[in-house]
Amino acid sequence: MMNAYCIILAGWSSNSKYALLGAIRSASQIISYEVYLGLLLIPIFFFSESINYTAVVLHQKVDSFVFLLPPTVIIFFITILAETNTTPFDLPEAEAEIVAGYNVEYSGIVFSLFFLAEYNNIFLSCSYLSLFFFGNFSDCLLSEIFFFFKLLVLVFFFILIRAILPRYRYDQLMTIG
Averaging pLDDT over each range in 11-20, 49-58, 87-96, 101-110, which range is the top one? Predict the structure, then answer.
């Protein structure tokens, strides 16, 4: 939720009506898909009988949730694609439109900080996906290496989808939501 506030403040503080319009579009996209992220966590917490991350991961030693809840994994992945504003859902940053997003008036180090934050959000979302659905690790150093391997595979899948899929129109995005 803090993501939406930061984007709106970034659009407003650039003192451009186009940046503010792009920020409002981006914030509406983030807020609408955060509801689905919260709803998709309910079956995970139900099956693991806890809302503790450690208990959710330790519950997956027997059976991973990727095999138990495959539609939830797919919908969760699509939702984090929309949440992180990546290519099929990167409408606030569309270069072909007049409104290029909340960062239209920024350049230099501030512009690069926006994109570093975006890629940090991708890594964080992929780590949640890895923990919630591809858990099952033990208490050794090999488990951390395996976690980072899963994380890199998921980030590579993000980049692959970014290269393959076209962008939706804004009305199509909200209809999907």
Answer: 49-58
Instruction: Yes or no: say if 120 and 27 are a contact pair by the CB < 8 Å rule.
Output: no
Rounded distance between C-alpha atoms, residue 136 and residue 63, angstroms: 8
The angle at the Cα of 114, spanning 132 to 94, to the nearest 5 degrees, equals 90
The residue behind tokens 């503010």 is: 20
Cα 175 versus chain centre, distance: 19
User: CB of 120 within 8 A of CB of 158?
Assistant: no
pLDDT of residue 152: 93
Determine if residue 15 is left, alpha or beta; phi over 0 gives left, psi from -120 to 50 gives alpha, anything else beta: left
Q: How far is CA 147 from the centre of its chain?
A: 18
Q: Which helix or strand (DSSP H or E) is residue 24 part of?
A: helix 17-48
Compute how many other C-beta atoms are within 10 angstroms of the C-beta atom of residue 96: 6
